[in-house]
């Protein structure tokens, strides 16, 4: 941080070596200068804004200042008060760097980045924050802000609005808020009773549904929110308490801990992760008249942007045999079909999919149907494409799975 603040030449060199060789092949949209700097034992917050300006200058020289946005991530600890949300206020001890930073963000149309963790609010004060409230559960008791009368059904919205009201108090109400980290641990120490796979799946499933539906928050209803889920993998070598190592959707061996409905539309069996649909006794399979090229394109799409779990058609898995394009495409087409309403549109695939009333399941290969359950065992949820092996990652590759407006990101090193 110090070198980035003091010398423009250092920033130019950093950009040349660390960003330009990988852009645009790697989709880089944001650079965060510092991460939760107010939590650092060494106070470096005064260095943030000068460093941000130098990075912006370097990007401008490279002609990327309108393509890559600069901001800085913060913890909720940057607030001195977060409850009720309308009383949200920034800690006055950070005023010396906060106002210039907010002015920089407005000037460059950059978002205010914040890491939000309802899990910690529950874990640290279970008598005041119920588990249902933290998990977006419909059974949670509403919390009413006494100053505004706004009704909060979950902790996530309350935390976002506390930031919004804090920004509004400083006359920065137009700043967009981006949640750069949120999630729930799937395992914890004995005293961390809330850290379970079921709770992690429930939180992230409800979060996705909440965000993709553009629900907004009570203070800003209907407003789109960009959210990053933390994290892609469990970090088995990370120090600290047990939960610190267990925030991932996947184990380090790339097998899934639980599955998620990325569409935000399906109901999820919390015990199994299975997407439950209403197929009315129909399945979707590959058309016998489709060309191999069209089938391959459809398979690639289903297992990629379509967010289908295609682990079952990988080598040694139940649906790998027969090892034919038509068989693999049928399994992927049907999975997408069942997860997305089981209607004609969901079985189209450019005319390569057809609906059938005959169950295509065979041996140990079970095709999803109405009310069926999907196993998460050895599931990587990675796209299956020609020449791509989902069991292998390149080192030093920053992997981004995204959907609008929710994204999930993690760097694999």
TrEMBL record:
Pfam family for this entry, one: X8
GO molecular function per UniProt: glucan endo-1,3-beta-D-glucosidase activity
Class of enzymatic activity (EC top level): hydrolase
Keywords: Disulfide bond, Glycosidase, Hydrolase, Plant defense, Signal
GO biological process: carbohydrate metabolic process; defense response
Claim: Cell membrane is one of the keywords in the record: no
Record field: catalytic activity: Hydrolysis of (1->3)-beta-D-glucosidic linkages in (1->3)-beta-D-glucans
Domain of life: Eukaryota
SMART domains linked to this entry: X8
Xref: InterPro entries: GH, Glyco_hydro_17, Glyco_hydro_17_plant, X8
Boundaries of every X8 domain copy: 282-367
EC number, as in UniProt: 3.2.1.39
PANTHER family in the cross-refs: GLUCAN ENDO-1,3-BETA-GLUCOSIDASE BG1-RELATED-RELATED
Family per record: Belongs to the glycosyl hydrolase 17 family.
Protein's recorded name: glucan endo-1,3-beta-D-glucosidase
Organism name: Oryza meridionalis
């Amino acid at each position: 941080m110090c070198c980035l603040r003091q010398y423009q030449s250092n920033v130019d060199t950093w950009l040349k070596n660390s960003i330009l060789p990988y852009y645009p092949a790697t989709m880089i949209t944001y650079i965060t200068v510092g991460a939760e700097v107010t939590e650092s034992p060494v106070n470096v917050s005064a260095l943030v804004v000068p460093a941000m300006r130098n990075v912006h200058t370097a990007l401008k020289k490279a002609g990327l200042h309108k393509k890559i946005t600069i901001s800085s991530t913060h913890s909720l600890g940057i607030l001195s008060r977060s409850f009720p949300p309308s009383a949200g206020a920034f800690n006055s001890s950070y005023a010396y760097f906060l106002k210039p930073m907010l002015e920089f963000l407005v000037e460059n149309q950059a978002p205010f980045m914040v890491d939000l963790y309802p899990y910690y609010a529950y874990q640290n004060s279970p008598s005041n924050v119920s588990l249902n409230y933290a998990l977006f559960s419909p059974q949670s008791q509403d919390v009413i802000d006494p100053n505004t009368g706004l009704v909060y059904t979950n902790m996530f919205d309350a935390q976002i609005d506390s930031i919004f009201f804090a920004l509004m108090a400083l006359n920065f109400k137009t700043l967009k808020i981006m949640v750069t980290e949120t999630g729930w641990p799937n395992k914890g120490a004995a005293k961390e009773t809330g850290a379970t796979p079921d709770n992690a799946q429930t939180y992230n499933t409800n979060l996705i549904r909440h965000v993709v539906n553009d629900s907004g928050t009570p203070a800003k209803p209907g407003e789109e929110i960009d959210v990053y889920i933390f994290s892609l993998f469990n970090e088995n070598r990370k120090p600290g308490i047990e939960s610190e190592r267990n925030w991932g959707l996947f184990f380090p061996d790339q097998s899934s801990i639980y599955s998620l409905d990325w569409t935000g539309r399906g109901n999820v069996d919390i015990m199994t992760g299975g997407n439950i649909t209403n197929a009315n006794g129909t399945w979707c399979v590959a058309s016998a008249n489709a060309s191999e090229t069209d089938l391959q394109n459809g398979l690639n799409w289903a297992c990629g942007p379509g967010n289908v779990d295609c682990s079952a058609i990988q080598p040694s898995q139940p649906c790998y045999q027969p090892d034919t394009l038509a068989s693999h495409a049928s399994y992927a087409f049907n999975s997408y079909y069942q997860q997305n309403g089981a209607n004609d549109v969901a079985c189209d695939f450019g005319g390569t999919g057809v609906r059938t009333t005959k169950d295509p399941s065979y041996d140990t290969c079970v095709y999803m149907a109405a009310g069926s359950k999907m196993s998460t065992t050895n599931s990587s949820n990675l796209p299956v494409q020609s020449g791509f092996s989902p069991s292998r990652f390149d080192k030093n590759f920053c992997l981004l799975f995204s959907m609008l407006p929710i994204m999930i990101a993690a760097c694999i090193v």
